[in-house]
Amino acid sequence: MSKFKERLKKLSPKKRLYALETLPGHLAESVQGERLHQLLTDFDFIEAKLDALGVQALIEDYDLARISDVLLSEWQTGTLGLIQGTIRKSAHILEKDKTELAGQLLGRLLDFEMTDIQGLLEQAKQSKDSVWLRPLRANLERPGEGCLRTLTGHTNSVRAVAIAPDGKTAISASEDKTLKIWDTETGTEVRTLTGHTESVNAVAIAPDGKTAISASWDKTLKIWDTETGTEVRTLIGHTNRVQAVAIAPDGKTAISSSYDNTLKIWDTERGTEVRTLTGHTNRVNAVAIAPDGKRAISASEDNTLKIWDTERGTEVRTLIGHTNRVTAVAIAPDGKTAISASWDKTLKIWDTKTGREVRTLTGHSDWVEAVAIAPDGNTAISASRGNTLKIWDTERGTEVRTLTGHSGGVEAVTIAPDGLTAISASWDSTLKIWDTETGIEVRTLTGHTKSVDAVEIAPDGLTAISASRDKTLKIWETETGTELRTLTSHTSLVNAVAIAPDGNTAISASGDNTLKMWDTKTDTEVRTLTGHTSLVTAVAIAPDGLTAISASWDSTLKIWDTETGTEVRTLIGHTGSVYAVAIAPDGNTAISGSSDETLKIWDTETGTEVRTLTGHTSWVTAVAIAPDGKTAISTSLDNTLKIWDLLTGKEIASFSGDFSFKCCAILPDGVTVVAGDASGRVHFLRLEEVSGGR
Description:
Layout: H1 3-9, H2 13-29, H3 33-40, H4 43-53, H5 55-67, H6 74-89, H7 91-94, H8 101-109, H9 115-127, E1 158-163, E2 169-174, E3 179-183, E4 188-193, E5 200-205, E6 211-216, E7 220-225, E8 230-236, E9 242-247, E10 253-258, E11 263-267, E12 272-277, E13 284-289, E14 296-300, E15 304-309, E16 314-320, E17 326-331, E18 337-342, E19 347-351, E20 357-361, E21 368-373, E22 379-384, E23 389-393, E24 398-403, E25 410-415, E26 421-426, E27 431-435, E28 441-445, E29 452-457, E30 463-468, E31 473-477, E32 483-487, E33 494-499, E34 505-510, E35 515-519, E36 524-529, E37 536-541, E38 547-552, E39 556-561, E40 566-572, E41 578-583, E42 589-594, E43 599-603, E44 608-613, E45 620-625, E46 631-636, E47 640-645, E48 650-656, E49 661-666, E50 672-677, E51 682-686
Antiparallel strand pairs: 1-2, 2-3, 3-4, 5-6, 6-7, 7-8, 9-10, 10-11, 11-12, 13-14, 14-15, 14-51, 15-16, 17-18, 18-19, 19-20, 21-22, 22-23, 23-24, 25-26, 26-27, 27-28, 29-30, 30-31, 31-32, 33-34, 34-35, 35-36, 37-38, 38-39, 39-40, 41-42, 42-43, 43-44, 45-46, 46-47, 47-48, 49-50, 50-51
Helix pairs in contact: 2-5, 4-5, 5-6, 6-8, 8-9
């Protein structure tokens, strides 16, 4: 029995409650840091406080130590943070059954070897005087992994969640046909919103935080007063399930998307439908947004491209000319020109302002799969299944030269930052480096014995790394074409490779469930990153080069310290394979996309899930973050492209195609989006504010 417990036993119930309530604050205010630390690592105090005042009061005691951390050494505050994190993570369990305290502490903290932690756990073990299940290993989530806390109350799957602008309130939507309003600081349920007759799939909160809109499979949307929890009105108009809803920044307009293949713009003040957005009649393969952000261009399996005014929600014009699906699109740096590639074996140059077809580029004898525009905007390179690439003068619309040498279809092409070098990847298991000025094949990078699935050029442009299904990576010197070394440690196909900003480190992701870190200067393997239990699909390196995030079929993401190669934490929350991950420019935020039909925003510093973005109804295949870090775009097999405001977690807009979206990118202007779909179509879109009644 601890000294604290002995003292408590001598007090009357009233004085005992008073001591539990006020002692931590008194120690903090009187600058008794060491005693505060001892108190907060004493199991008897933790158990007594939990029993008398509940989980939240206990959690807040540790905040006192954080506020007064000048009183405590770094290792002490770190210890207290682990204990608080464990209690917070176990809050939903302890609120139901306080006797599980010891098991929760052991299950989450056993692997931490700090003396105070181990002492606390020993106290916890000794405290039990009845039958219980004691964890022998720390098989529960550790503090700092996954979510901060779990909110329980729904009786079926939770489909969506939105956080109010002030960060103090959250609203969840569930298949149990209800929404719940939560106090995010305490984790308590404030109220339940009932009225929908089917699953609620999405919810958005207005900028003022006083209004929310939900979308349901009952074909309606409902506007709610979040302060009173009352239903203000029902929005009727969709003829099938409503899958998503977003509220414009002015709070007066909302946009919904539905299984009826339309989007609807609503006046939220009047509760009236402003307009319905319809357009393409078939799948969409790609999309790009112009640098000025005022126009978007979409491309579809209906053989057309469409230019949209996203502010008015109107289709400006349809670009007609291709006679087969459009597979790719690129916009020139000045935003005045776009180039599309098609299975009709041609490319077309378009005036993005007028939508006029400037000219058609003919010459390929097979489907055109890709197109890239050089930084100067005057040169483009296309890749074809006819085993060739072609260099084009975009001002004259003339073919400069044909690049031959591949013995299989060319699937991809990338142009170096200086515009003087290009690298192509082919079905023939090789990559080729080209001098774009002379059209000469500088050299063929041979050595891979199976298809090349990924290639990255180092920031200085002097080195390239290829990843192949032959289980190897190859490091190439782009200037001389010399194969510096073959990296042969993976035991399965290599799916992805990323190079750190300083060019000194590369990380590869493989079907052998591992990632490997490589020293690109010596071309040696530094270490293997293990932890995933299934195929690793993607990897991204933060702008500072100190952190990497991987995505896997095991439904998790992992954050890695690139300097030490250690796993910092596992991001748990997805219920399906994770296919995509992107890191924001500030390095503090990451977004993942999964086959569980959601995206998740993560705080990379703490490893906590900030929020879940719901609205997609099938696998999320790709995600990209705008340069300003405020906007993201996602693509899905549900045939939609969704734009998200990362500051609020709200879905800003949704665009529906006829086929599955497979990839996306955001241009430097932050408002132009390019996406490709399964049919080979290319889409250009631009995000604009939607003004009600226009």
